[in-house]
Design goal:
By secondary structure, this protein is an alpha+beta fold. It folds into four domains: about 140 residues, no CATH class; about 70 residues; about 50 residues; about 100 residues, no CATH class. It is about 35% helix and about 15% strand. The chain has 13 helices and 15 strands. Strands 9, 10, 11 and 12 form a four-stranded antiparallel sheet that branches. A three-stranded antiparallel sheet has the order 3-4-5. Strands 6-7-8 form a three-stranded mixed sheet, with no helix packed on it. It starts with a helix and ends in a 32-residue tail after the last strand.
Length: about 450
């Protein structure tokens, strides 16, 4: 039953080593507002409110009509369970008027009553007046509480509306100051953060260097202030800064990083504004490149004569892979893998070679056929043609008006390749060995 639950909770409060704990304080307040028994922080047991006290005879004969509704009024009043709603109930049930007639039974009496209080209960839509004693007995309420509510109703309000309970709304004496929180944010943001260039559309996080962690950052923070906040507060505020230590799956852009460093180091406002505009233009060009890529991908899906491919030279693989330091510095062979991905069909092709055959008929030159310097970072558009084997067509922008430049990659003294045939290394897909297969 509810009484058993309250009794068990009160026993836990009495036996608790933390009588000021948050949960215990909340339980204590709830029981008090519902008229249930509770235990104070000092361990004193307070009995619950009860309607067992009988009504007394009075000149208004309240007992004749109030006795049958006494339990219902008591239960509805204490089921409110809120201090503010109890105030509203009392304020609506009690009114104050000026005293019409006063009489002193003794001439030397100092009694000077200027106001009269009227007490009412609303039963089935009818407002009935009762005496003060029957009113207090029915609700099992204190006279001081009722008097205070009425005084606030007529003194602190023009319209007679009681104010909201102000208890518990003041600032906590143990609360961390706003200045301390600002110092924490200032320290966290003082570390250099990097933005992922290729995933910024789907992820707006910034990344801190991999050698940092929250423990190191907090230790550095403690050296900067004489009154540091706790580590829990520091970590809580760190989670609100949209920063992360997670290793990015994509590299950052060389140009974006260079622009960011130049903007941070520049003190001239005009030069800084020009750098910001150039950086925004570079980001816009990158976004346009992704847009063109999506359009070309859709075209290749609709028309089989158009092929849209992406290629990437993957990480160099040491062969053989040994962790021994002596073998690491003595090995000479590296394996390379050039991957081409057909965006329309989703199929990928890999061209695998090693150091022994790297010196072939093609060579990467530093100048194009016009004698201009060739820089891979500046290339925005690449095209191959079957009629121009060994030559790379490229542009440094995505403009349709710019003409393609030609980079001749045929090694001097080599014959022009006409047919390239790659022998398959395997006749079919290889099975996974038992050693590599992962069992659940």
């Amino acid at each position: 039953t509810e009484d058993d639950i309250v009794t068990q909770a009160n026993e836990r409060i009495i036996n608790s080593d933390k009588p000021f704990g948050r949960k215990i304080r909340k339980l204590r307040t709830t029981n008090r507002q519902k008229g249930l028994p509770y235990v104070t922080a000092k361990g004193k047991s307070i009995a619950g409110r009860s309607n067992e006290k009988p009504l007394q005879k009075c000149r208004m004969d309240c007992k004749s009509w109030l006795e049958t509704h006494k339990n219902a009024i008591f239960n509805e009043y204490w089921s409110l369970g809120c201090h503010t709603r109890r105030l509203d109930f009392i304020a609506a049930a009690v009114t104050k008027t000026k005293t019409v007639v006063t009489r002193k039974r003794v001439d030397t009496s100092l009694k000077e009553r200027n106001v009269t209080y009227h007490y009412y209960f609303t039963i089935d839509g009818n407002r009935k007046k009762c005496c003060k004693k029957c009113f207090l007995i029915t609700l099992d309420e204190n006279e001081k509480f009722v008097r205070t509510v009425v005084e606030n109703k007529y003194t602190n309000s023009v319209t007679g509306i009681t104010k909201k309970d102000q208890r518990g709304l003041g600032p906590s004496p143990n609360k961390i100051s706003e200045a301390a929180i600002m110092d924490v944010h200032k320290h966290i943001l003082s570390f250099p953060a990097y933005e992922s260039h290729y995933t910024r559309k789907t992820n707006n996080k910034k990344y801190l260097p991999s050698h940092l962690n929250l423990k190191k950052m907090y230790e550095l923070y403690r050296l900067t202030t004489s009154e540091p906040v706790g580590r829990t507060i520091y970590e809580r505020e760190f989670k609100t800064t949209n920063l992360s230590f997670k290793v990015r799956k994509a590299d950052t852009c060389h140009k974006c990083d260079a622009f960011k460093m130049r903007i941070e180091m520049e003190h001239n406002d005009e030069t800084k504004l020009n750098l910001i505009n150039e950086c925004d233009k570079h980001v816009k060009n990158a976004d346009d490149a992704y847009s063109f890529k999506r359009l070309d991908k859709e075209k290749s899906k609709l028309d089989s004569t158009n092929i849209c491919s992406a290629f990437d030279l993957q990480q160099c693989l040491p062969t053989p892979f040994l962790e021994t330091s002596v073998a690491f510095y003595k090995r000479l062979y590296w394996t390379y893998n050039l991957t081409t991905h057909d965006l329309a069909s989703g199929q990928a092709s890999c061209y695998l070679w090693h150091d022994k055959i790297v010196k072939g008929p093609l060579v990467m030159r530093k100048t194009n056929e016009d004698g201009n310097k060739f820089i891979w970072h500046d290339v925005s558009w690449v095209r191959y043609s079957s009629s121009m084997l060994g030559k790379l067509l490229y542009k440094n922008s995505l403009s349709e008006e710019e003409e393609f430049k030609i980079l001749n990659m045929i090694r001097r003294g080599s014959k022009v390749m006409t047919n390239i045939t790659l022998d398959p290394a395997y006749d079919g897909p290889l099975a996974i060995s038992k050693e590599k297969k992962r069992f659940d």
